[in-house]
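User: My collaborator sent over this chain with a note saying "see what the structure looks like." That's all I know about it. Can you take a look?
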Amino acid sequence: MCGIAGWLGNLPGAEGHAARLSQTMRHRGPDGHGVQVWADAGLVHTRLSIIDLSPAGAQPITNEDRTVWAVFNGEIYNHKELRHDLKTRGHGFKGYSDAEVLPHLFKENGTGFVTKLRGMFAIAIYDRQTRSLTLARDRFGIKPLFYAFGKNRLTFASEISALKQIPGIDLRPDRQAIYDFAALFHIPAPQTFYTGIRALEPGEILEARLEGDRIFSRIQKYHQWVIAPNPQITFSEAVERADELIRAAVKNQLESDVTIGSLLSGGIDSSLVSAAAQVALPEGIHTFNVRFPEKQYDETWAAVAVANHIGSNHQTLFMGQNRGSWQQITDVLRHAGQPFADTSIFAVNAVCRLMRSHITVALSGDGGDEAFGGYDVHWRIAQIAQLQKLPLHLWRSGVTFLSRLSKLGMISERVPCRIQSVMGADDTSIVQTLWCWIRDEEHARLCHDKDALPVRRLFEPQWTHNLPEPHSRLERLSAHLTEVNTRLILPNDFLFKVDTASMKESLEVRVPMLDEELFAFAMSLPHRLKVSGHTGKRTLREVAKRRLPKAVSTKPKRGFEIPVDTWVDDDFKPRLKDCLPGRSSRLSEFFRPEIYRPIVQAFCDNRAYPGISRQSLYQRVIMLLSVQLALNEDSPNPSP
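Assistant: Without extra context I'll predict from the sequence alone. Here is the result:
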């Protein structure tokens, strides 16, 4: 795992800029750095040494005739097979790192090289002969890659904060991105918070060529998932195949020349990954979990039960009574490089910081919920599909009755609102309602911008859904939900969070559940093999019954979260009250103060806010804080 950066085109003072890029990303690669600068291009790399710790594994790395150069962040899990094939074609190698296959593979296949890779990666390749730069990102978006066009120049980096070191980039806030962020609590690629910086999307490749002093570029998809449920597959066949593919995926991701461990949270996915690693490694796997002070957020019992069951060398790390300070929280939010409000990032970062003192590489269970149907929304769509069959007058009567109950304090005010939001809604509206933190009505009241593109556009289906005929409304909704989970939420929220939180502590996190073959199989499962009643991950739970304690295989899903409202220290809320509603706040440029100030006040006063859950309240506050922090960031190089 590393940090990469570079440019194509004219960059005065290139050596100095290369040094600043390297320094800004030192946390991503504390074991070394490399720079290669030409008259019209440059490549920068900071190294977290994982495979081939010798100088032969250092980057930038080149081929035999030094015409093709590469920098790369991530892991290529099939690099040995690729290396063998390249050797039969006459290519020679100096070391055994996965990075070294890239310039040779590009020389052999051109931009088609990326279709042969299995793994997590962000790659930049410079071809000196054609004066071209190629950027590529893995199929899921596990590894981030940002880029910016300036005058006669293309610049790229693993992190937005690095790109901000380069002059000539438009760092004005992107109003559309802020508008979308207010609903999603993450910024969807290709947008970023900054007008002049874009994010390469998963499965994309950017080709740029320098002709004279002008840059010509194009972006194209090299991969897009297809959802094609197989109605013929039986439950037993699905379980057998899933079990086989999980074990194979984990085994393929265990190569490392440094200590490797597993984050055993106690959930089904991380437990299956840990169990497979324990079997595959001759010496067994080191597993870790973190004990949280609040019992309702702590799953140590499950992690210990799994560790004892599989026989791993387990260690429980204690969060202790360490409370969230202003410095700690704002430091993590600023480190993201742009607004981000998934508050589980604080828990993930704390875990990574504790684990880094023991290991350099960690396996994680991330990615199992998306295709196998693990979230609550996967069973809720069945309820919605059934309810929508009711006559409209019954819906209206039900909403009226529930509204009366809420006024009497017998149920939450959110219940009638949620029911009304899906009454007569189409598929896209249902999926949007299930995934947006702030719904359309509140969003419209909060945001100034009325000419922004609707958030709904992000939830419209964009992939091919090859559904069997005839198919049910539920099967169609399930496919739609799987696409949005994978295309929008997974890369922009969950994977961005893990990369940000882990690389801040120089810890590599691998995600075997996002093995390409395993994920493609999971997307071939019909809804009946994903969900049963109110229980998700039906197929994976059956695999878990074979590999894990029964109490773990049947327990309900629980998110990895810190209760921000009680976790923050005594100084945080007074400082927040000064920061957000204060006169110096720039939030009013984008949001209406009469809407957001009462929310901030309720959080600071430890009061409930009508119609908003406890978690939704502190999520909204972190959303506002992250925007404020980004707005207050001084542009380091605003002029061309």
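A starting point for your reply to your collaborator: Residues 98 and 508 are 15 Å apart (CA to CA).
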